Amino acid sequence: ELSATLNCIKSLFFLASRSFKHGYCKMACKRNPEDLAILYSNRAASYLKDGNCGECVKDCNMSLELSQFNVKSLLRRAAAYEALERYRQAYVDYKTALQIDCNIAAAHDGTNRMTKALTETDGPSWREKLPPIPTVPLSVKEKLAQMSAAPSDKEIKKAQALKEEGNALVKKGEHKKAIEKYSQSLKHNPTEVTTYTNRALCYLSVKQYRDAIRDCDEALVIDSNNVKALYRRAQAHKELKVRARVFIIALQLLIPTQRNQTLVSKVSAGFQGKRQNKKHFLP
Question: How many other C-beta atoms are found inside a 10 Å radius of the C-beta of residue 269?
């Protein structure tokens, strides 16, 4: 069973890589550069895990061109540089990540390792040989601070009440009214992942697929392994006929837990039937 799962992952990854080479993901994500940045960053993580640090750096570079201060891409590129013994570049990336969030333990540890390595190789004046360290704009820091600010108990209760009203409307099939309630709820508590996934479901029902994708993306910022967000985003992309993107999301869905297997099967069945007509698939 494990072998079959690994083979499935390899097949999907091969198809996803072909999609990148032929530019399908670029076309799919032309209107959302941050979405494409995430794809490159995710593939970089796979390269890093396999020890292919050169390709990891290339994908991180692409990701950071699209989303300059993507923390995961900075940390992955720093780790790849470190493995390649390019300690100056690694130090710069670790320090940049710390400007964005000073509480990242991996960045602190990496900075300490690079300081020690550079002191040994370049001597006491090692800082003079560093590339420039980018300055993270205050607007970026403020945006991240707003995202991390916890709502008050009063706001959470109000948001929960509005979300429950939305849930009741969904049961009645009144999806547009439910969207309004969920939107109001998120104004009070923008950190509740289920409100995003519930509103995404409503957007799917009223065929507002791009709005559904945006809500799923927001949910995945909060919980990167949220199965409902991954599944509903895959549904929306499928409806928009973005075949290559669906494959990459399906790859993310292959989380080895029993409760996720039904969703994986549904997504797999959804695009297996499309392989018969190759002119609508991959070249």
Answer: 9
Q: How many CB atoms lie within 10 A of CB 23?
A: 10
88: closest CA among 64, 110, 72? 110
Q: List phi, psi (to 5°) of 9.
A: -60, -45
- Within 8 A by CB and 6+ apart from 190, the residues are 147, 151
How far, in Å, CA of 25 to CA of 245, rounded?
A: 6
Token pair 């000073």 is at which residue?
A: 102
User: What is the per-residue pLDDT across 44-86, written as a single tens digit (0 to 9) for each?
Assistant: 988 888 889 999 999 999 999 998 888 889 999 999 999 999 9
DSSP label of 69: T
Are 63 and 75 contacting, i.e. CB atoms less than 8 angstroms apart? no
- Domains in the chain, please, with CATH? 1-31+242-283 (no CATH), 32-148 (1.25.40.10), 150-240 (1.25.40.10)
Instruction: Give one DSSP letter per residue of 106-120, joined into a string.
Output: HHHHHHHHHHHHHHH
Is-above-0.85 flag for pTM? no
Tell me the HSE value of 148 on the side-chain side, using a 13 A CA sphere: 9
The predicted-structure confidence for 124-147, as pLDDT tens digits, reads as follows 999 999 999 999 988 877 776 665
Q: First CA to last CA across the chain, in angstroms?
A: 30
